[in-house]
Here is the input.
Amino acid sequence: MKRTHDQMEDLEKEGEDGEEEKEEAKIGKDSEIIDTMGNKREYATMPKKTKYRMRAHVNPLNEPKFPFPLSPEWVDWSLHYPAYFGKLDNNGDRIVCNTPVHPVTYDTKPEVDEKYKNSQVRILDIGCGYGNLLLELSKEFPEKLILGMEIRDKVTEFVVDKINALRINSGYTKFTNIAAIRTNVMKLVLNYFGKGQLEKIFICFADPHFKKSNYRRRIINGPLLCEYAHLLKEGGKIYTVTDVKDLYDWNVNFLGKHALFEEVTGSEKDDDPCVKMMSEQTDEAKKVIKRGDPVWSAVFRKITGKPSTEALMEYMK
Here is the structure.
């Protein structure tokens, strides 16, 4: 029987839900959970992807119809990373991710205690999908705050619901350093982060937008690279991976000719654990590997020792 694309997608998600059940079995639904404050907790059921289904494509050129901060100072990061702001109870297990189900507002500037001033996001996963890379990065960089940004609301809700369940089931000892927000990176990424704040940016299996008329929707282009360069510290890296050779060539071309980036190759790239993570352990990577198709990855570093103004003027010539 021939199946539609949506039916095939459902079957894939059902298979992935099986992985969630294996994860639950490792913990044990009857296990006693003691949180960091010594309280007994009920087991939190892991979310199922089949319950968060939505269309795969959202037009990033549309004007956002959801809340967004006027500037980075208007984001209350304690709502997303409570453990890093002295809230040991996971903020009462309250979930926020800027969707109708888990809303957040940016109406007032939060007051941040001086001792938490350095609790800032350092790693960004653009288009985080169902969040597998966030989980792997959390283990690799347990002291870094890591954020996933995703334009699809239901997908974002799945990610934060899963993170919250994992936090609860670990007694608030794991995955407290990752979070996800529903937003439009193409229009709003500068509203969330300051200059030189980020150390790593991941762009994994982005929508290739095959039609030439839709190339302007691609998440890597000249103007956006200037924004990423503004947000990355000197020496910070952009990681990209895709199973579409044309998109790989596009990414390498734009990054390679930008005055503020240089490609990372050889053993430095090969020995970087992040390359293996994004190429093998994301949701999309696992699907590609299962199909037996190749993946193409590239890593670029923001150059050091060259004034940004001079470099950008050179780039604009």
About this structure: The chain has a mean pLDDT of 88. DSSP finds ten helices and nine strands in the chain. The CA atoms of residues 132 and 282 lie 5 Å apart.
